[in-house]
Write a structure and sequence with these properties.
It is found in: Membrane. By secondary structure, this protein is mostly helical. It has a domain of 111 residues. It is built from 3 helices and no strands. The radius of gyration is 23 Å and the shape is elongated.
Length: 160
């Protein structure tokens, strides 16, 4: 079907939020790059506009990624704690009550959901395909593992 004769002139001025207009222009690369010109990280408001904002953003990415390792360690510790409670209560009459067991399961589920959300956010950071951001994610994982991982890793490296 040929649409070349149709008038689309009435569609001018119908900009979507974040799609041009007067705001910052976000450059989205689909190939690996070191270029930070008009780089937006996850949100249009997280816009790299110069060296200062790049350095601040790289530090923020390192801290965010290190924070993920902290959440993983908190989760591992809570799992060990709840396992100890469950095993210790089996020796006693009646053991842990059903509501306490459900509460522990609910806390584990919340911790897991936070980890999944966090890991997908880190994946979005990595998917900027920007080498500087990718390096900051790796540095943050390194720093976070050194700072927070008291026990061995119980999960493989994946989005969640």
């Amino acid at each position: 079907m040929d649409h070349s004769h149709m008038d689309h002139g009435g569609h001018m001025g119908h900009d979507m939020p974040g799609m041009g207009g007067d705001g910052p222009k976000c450059n989205m690369n689909m190939l690996f790059t070191w270029d930070t010109t008009d780089l937006c990280i996850v949100f249009p408001s997280w816009h790299i506009s110069g060296t200062g904002s790049l350095i601040f953003s790289l530090l923020a990415v390192v801290l965010l990624t290190a924070g993920y390792e902290a959440i993983r360690e908190i989760s591992r510790r809570y799992e060990a704690y709840s396992k100890g409670i469950m095993e210790g209560s089996r020796g006693r009459n009646g053991g842990v009550g059903r509501s306490a067991e459900q509460q522990m399961k609910m806390i584990k589920a919340v911790l897991y959901a936070v980890q999944v959300f966090y890991s997908f956010f880190i994946m979005l950071l990595f998917m900027t395909y920007n080498g500087w951001i990718m390096l900051a994610v790796a540095v943050g994982a390194f720093v976070g593992y050194l700072m927070f991982s008291q026990s061995s890793s119980t999960k493989s490296v994946a989005c969640h």
